[in-house]
Amino acid sequence: MAMDTLYDYHIWQPEEGEDDLNVTISNSHLLPCNCFLFHLHFRHILQSNHSQQSHYLLNSSLSSYLIPCDVFFATASSILIAVFSGTGVAQDFLDTAVPDVLSVAADIACNPLNAGRTILPLAVSVLVVSPYNERQEIGQVLRESSPQAFKTLPASEMAIEDLKNVEIGVGGELLIGECRICLDELVNGMEITRLPCAHLYHRDCIVKWLETSHLCPLCRYAMPLS
């Protein structure tokens, strides 16, 4: 690889009703102690240096954990390493991020505005960007990523060739969503391809994806193997 993988992360206390982090704990007043409701939003992206499609989404997940505050502060390093273990992040990232998460958690616990709250929300978003220069390096990045997340095989050439393009009706909405690989918009007039599971992508994006993984990026629908 010509460049190293880059990590960007943000740690904060979510507001009530914040998009994607609105997890309700029933009977929270019955909990025996104060707890952190820890949210981890993880994304891993391939960043092209010269491709027309600048980036490709490899993985995106949102996980939530209810952790007693005293347990969190007593064993924060072990807990956070366990939480991050399924993402494949590097040890250098953990060495930097774990103390920062612990520091923000301490600020949240000591904030007078949180006095009397049983549930203390704590969120961490992590963006991993793996640069690559050549198309064939996509496979290398996949192999070097978390083995739990990226044990994949390419789809068959015939299955890729048989993919059907979708013609969006002229009377429909101009914007029909986004391609979940490159994250750019899908609009009328583009060459849009539909998998058998009905999910839509840019033609070039899904072809390149299926050349390294036979699974739909969204629902893990399995295309025929080579």
From TrEMBL:
A GO MF term: zinc ion binding
One Gene Ontology term from the biological process aspect of the record: protein ubiquitination
Domain annotation RING-type: ranges: 179-220
Keywords assigned by UniProt, alphabetized: Metal-binding, Zinc, Zinc-finger
SMART domains associated with the record: RING, RINGv
Superkingdom per UniProt: Eukaryota
Transmembrane segments: none
Substrates-to-products reaction catalysed: S-ubiquitinyl-[E2 ubiquitin-conjugating enzyme]-L-cysteine + [acceptor protein]-L-lysine = [E2 ubiquitin-conjugating enzyme]-L-cysteine + N(6)-ubiquitinyl-[acceptor protein]-L-lysine
Protein name, per record: RING-type E3 ubiquitin transferase
Biological source species: Cucumis melo (Muskmelon)
